[in-house]
Amino acid sequence: MHVTVLGAGTMGHGIAQVSAMAGHEVTLRDIESGIVEEGIDAIRSNLDGGVERGKVTEAEKAATLGRITGETDLATAVGGADLVAEAVPEDLDIKTDVLTDAEDVADGDAVLATNTSSLSVTELASSLERPGNLIGLHFFNPVHIMSLVEVVVGERTDESTRAFGIEFVEGIDKTPVVVRDVPGFASSRLGVALGVEAVRMVEEGVASPRDIDNAMELGYNHPMGPLELTDVVGLDVRLDILEYLRTELGERFKPPQLLKRKVRAGKLGRKSGEGFYVWEDGEAVAMSGAWDR
């Protein structure tokens, strides 16, 4: 199978990596060659880490990298692909534009996938000539480690597209969870609900971010607490999802002022170096602000 991934950022290069590791030929496309190169370098770094931990052999690393081609031209990247998966920013207009442009140059039977974490697959499909070919494939970060993929079925998604999506996810050694196209799907809706309540608890002075996270990690066996996870996902991403869910589902998803203030200040989490924690080399080393004591 030939898989084309549109967007070479964190999610895009992760999807490209797991697809190539499963034996698929992969084209990783972005608008600038430097961004594509950064994405491939990130894949190489992930594979190096796997080799160091004994999870990946040198031969598997070389074979995976050998299956990945970088590209900036959309028509070249998409032509001949069996699956075209977009992993561009979580913005309805951007995703709509990317998907419609991709459909124009893709083969007629190519399956299109969106990696949206909360936007309506049905609405994205409404701008396409072949809406039945679109499905949601919601991967989780880091893609090469997380085993879950939500397969989101839109109102006009064909049964053959649904089956293709499930088969693809299983073929890259992930576990598919099939959900209807409702706001926030299953994972984002539940995850954001927990995360926003944790932010409110910090805002109200109930406990420190670390103590709140420890409570969920040690008391409920969560692998990562809701505030550290918010930092990893990105405070700006969480804010966008909350605003969308508030519009669709009501005031229980109203974003806390603390979250808004941090985003306005550029404290976006791990990617900016500070959110609810201070981050160095990808690790949370201290709590941010008044809780850092």
UniProtKB/TrEMBL annotation:
Protein name as it appears in the record: 3-hydroxyacyl-CoA dehydrogenase family protein
Pfam families linked: 3HCDH, 3HCDH_N
Site description Important for catalytic activity, residues in chain: H138
Domain annotation 3-hydroxyacyl-CoA dehydrogenase C-terminal: ranges: 184-279
Occurrences of domain 3-hydroxyacyl-CoA dehydrogenase NAD binding (ranges): 2-181
Record keywords: NAD, Oxidoreductase
Organism of provenance: Halobellus ruber
UniProt: NAD(+) binding residues: G7, A8, G9, T10, M11, G12, D30, E90, K95, S117, N141, K271
InterPro entries assigned to the protein according to its UniProt record, in alphabetical order: 3-OHacyl-CoA_DH (IPR022694), 3-OHacyl-CoA_DH_NAD-bd (IPR006176), 3HC_DH_C (IPR006108), 6-PGluconate_DH-like_C_sf (IPR008927), 6PGD_dom2 (IPR013328), NAD(P)-bd_dom_sf (IPR036291)
